[in-house]
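Case study: Groucho/TLE N-terminal Q-rich domain-containing protein.
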Amino acid sequence: RDPGGVAREPLVRHKLPFRANRLQIHCGESCDRIKDESSPAGPYHSLKVEYDKLANEKTEMQRHYVMYYEMSYGLNIEMHKQVSNFKGEVVID
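Here is what the predicted structure looks like once written out:
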């Protein structure tokens, strides 16, 4: 009985640990989330992934540049050969 004379029900013990357990899980999840969000590793990792992607793209662009340069150089050589042959034929005739 409480001081007012009203009978109270005894506390049910199994609910307290459940609430405490739920609170612990919630606090643990919140702490993990805060740790992940405030950790410099998260932004570092995303920047590293972006850097690697751009580095690969740069390498690919350089390969394409070299390939086109070599093709252009080869065509230029062929064009000069054709012009030389044409000039030689004109002179001979």
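For the exam, be able to explain this: The radius of gyration is 39 Å.
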